[in-house]
Design a protein that fits this description.
- It is a single chain.
- Helix content is 81%, strand content 5%.
- The two termini are 25 Å apart.
- 8% of the residues are buried.
Amino acid sequence: MSEKQKKATAYWKENIRYLFILLTIWFLVSYGAGILFKETLDGIKIGGFKLGFWFAQQGAIYVFVVLIFIYVRLMNKLDKKYGYDE
């Protein structure tokens, strides 16, 4: 395997690891907080709304948008690390 192929393989392994971690967080927030842990979270209120309801309606969307920005930042660092930046 050439040096270029090793670099590309390492790059994609790290990229997939980032994706897995970020998608796991998104799943836990959207499905976990909005559905599985809704009853527990409903004991806490934000702006007059129960926290479980808030996560199901708003929180998961906010977390998803934040995760997009985190992914962009991580990928920019990864691109620089492996020399794929412009």
